[in-house]
Specification:
Shape: globular
Strand content: 15-25%
Helix content: 25-40%
Radius of gyration: 19 Å
Number of domains: 2
Number of helices: 10
Strand order of the largest sheet: 6-7-8-3-9-10
Largest sheet: 6 strands, mixed
CATH class of the largest domain: Alpha Beta
């Protein structure tokens, strides 16, 4: 079963001047799964993400990726291993076209990042692959559109496209549907499901419709610790989870629209 795990943490801890933000988290993410990390505000979800991508150093515990201990590796080493976080590529440049944004992400993968002095013609070789990626996220007809003119939901799709350009083995998506209307949420939810083929996705998400609709496994955090884990049906009916969410602004666990 160990070969089935792409990411594993054991006893992960992060303290900030005596405050324990993450407290002994054991996380097992199966290869090829969509795994959601949920919890009330202040549960430690974002801190966990920051530990996994090494924006923060853990106070204790270990992180393993594909069996290798990456606990002390730097963010650039983590990215080279194939762990890519959606906001890491804030390479959506508003005044470049959609195609140009994906092309820049492809340059990064090729190791020719930011060679802006290269002629336009030399970058045209990347157009074919860039268009393939845009087709994956339903943006091929927007290739020539200046990014600032895209609707919000399409911009998030472009962020996913630039992440895909780095060929991640594990995609970490931080609140992928935050601030979206229903139509955009549905589109991005289907997009995440679609791009999960042949890769693993770990996401922090507040929208329980999204969590229920596409997650294989859900880990619930509360006060920095794992409260429950399992399918949506299992965690949503767990009395401890219901109690942790009661009265919080972002809960939709009991909403009829979710079930």
């Amino acid at each position: 079963m160990a070969d089935d795990l792409i990411l594993e943490t054991q006893g992960l801890v992060k303290e900030f001047k005596g405050f324990v933000a993450v407290n002994g988290v054991d996380l097992k993410v199966r290869r090829g799964a969509i795994h959601a990390l949920i919890g009330p505000n202040g549960a430690g979800k974002t801190t966990c993400f920051n530990l996994l991508t090494k924006f923060l150093e853990p106070t204790g515990g270990s992180i393993r990726f594909n069996g290798a201990d990456i606990t002390r590796e730097r963010p650039a080493q983590i990215a080279r291993r194939g762990i890519v976080r959606s906001f890491q590529i804030s390479a959506v440049f508003p005044h470049l076209t959609v195609l140009e944004n994906v092309r820049i992400a492809l340059q990064r993968k090729l190791g020719t990042s930011f060679h802006f002095w290269r002629s336009e013609r030399s970058l045209d070789a990347l157009n074919g692959r860039a268009m393939e990626i845009l087709a994956q996220v339903g943006l091929e007809t927007f290739a020539g559109t200046v990014t600032v003119e895209l609707p919000y939901g399409r911009k998030r799709a472009l962020e996913i496209a630039t992440t895909l350009a780095l060929e991640p083995e594990l995609m970490l998506l931080d609140e992928p549907t935050q601030g979206m209307g229903h139509e955009d949420v549905d589109r991005v939810m289907q997009l995440i499901k679609q791009v999960s083929t042949n890769r693993t996705i770990l996401m922090v998400e507040h929208n329980m419709k999204v969590v229920a609709g596409i997650s294989d496994t859900i880990t619930v955090l509360a006060r920095g610790s794992v409260l429950a884990e399992g399918s949506y049906a299992q965690v949503s009916s767990d009395p401890k989870v219901v109690e942790a969410y009661m009265g919080t602004a972002d809960t939709e666990l009991a909403s009829p629209a979710v079930h």
